[in-house]
Design a protein that fits this description.
mainly alpha
Length: 245
């Protein structure tokens, strides 16, 4: 399974006919001819996304284009206002929750939900203050949404599990913990592979051929490598805490 980064999507070309057909299939989804031209919220672009629910071949290059299209559609739909640190929420937490659940219901069965459920629960939990509150049913709901979407967000899931442990049944907590550990271990394996490949500067390495060198110049590879190493260190710390819960 291959992780999808926005930086890859931005460097990729226009999407394939298959992607266009996918966009036209859903009657309620915007059709975007050039998703690479849609401005993406920076915080979304930095989130690693599990692509197994919207890609027939998660390791294939076409997944980059599919993800690019789905993310662009989310930006156009703009389903829930994202609070800015200087302005605060434009709507109440209750309204944001209603919008979230309405989107999930309206787009049920659509591939866009796989991306939506990995991005927007983080916003509800963090930006709308749900994680800091005492409504444990809501904390559990949004943590479960992340888990169902196979989210790699070990940090926020760890924080949610810490709050939920005294307020959940042993069976429910054990199930959520096991799912989070499994996703975190998958993310660890992906990061280890990416770090190894990015560190390989030989001509036979993944980034050694002419096309890869052109798409991923040395400075870009160095940025991705530094980011991956930083996340890997944080992941190991979170993994240790998860095992101790």
């Amino acid at each position: 399974m291959k992780q999808v980064y926005l930086i890859v999507a931005l460097l990729a070309g226009s999407f394939s006919c298959t992607d266009k057909q996918a966009a036209e299939k859903g009657p309620h989804l915007p059709v975007i001819d050039h998703p690479e031209r849609v401005e993406i919220r920076k915080s979304f672009g930095e989130v690693p996304i599990d692509n197994s629910d919207f890609c027939a071949d998660p390791a294939g290059n076409s997944c980059v284009h599919t993800y690019q299209l789905l993310l662009a559609q989310l930006m156009i739909l703009d389903p829930i206002p994202v609070p800015q640190s200087t302005l605060g929420p434009a709507i109440s937490t209750a309204e944001a929750i209603d919008l979230y659940k309405s989107f999930v219901s309206h787009y049920r069965g659509e591939p866009i939900l796989a991306v939506f459920k990995q991005l927007y629960p983080r916003i509800l939990l963090n930006k709308y203050g749900i994680l800091e509150g005492s409504d444990f049913a809501q904390i559990s709901y949004f943590a479960q949404q992340l888990i169902e979407a196979k989210s790699y967000d070990h940090a926020i899931l760890l924080a949610a599990l810490k709050k939920l442990k005294p307020h959940s049944s042993p069976g429910q907590f054990s199930s959520m913990k096991a799912s989070t550990l499994e996703a975190t271990q998958r993310r660890r394996s992906l990061l280890e592979a990416e770090i190894s490949e990015l560190s390989d500067t030989t001509a036979t390495g993944r980034y050694g051929d002419e096309l890869s060198t052109r798409l991923f110049p040395k400075d870009i590879r160095a940025q991705i490598l530094a980011r991956n190493k930083s996340e890997y260190r944080n992941l190991l710390t979170d993994l240790d805490e998860l095992n101790k819960l």
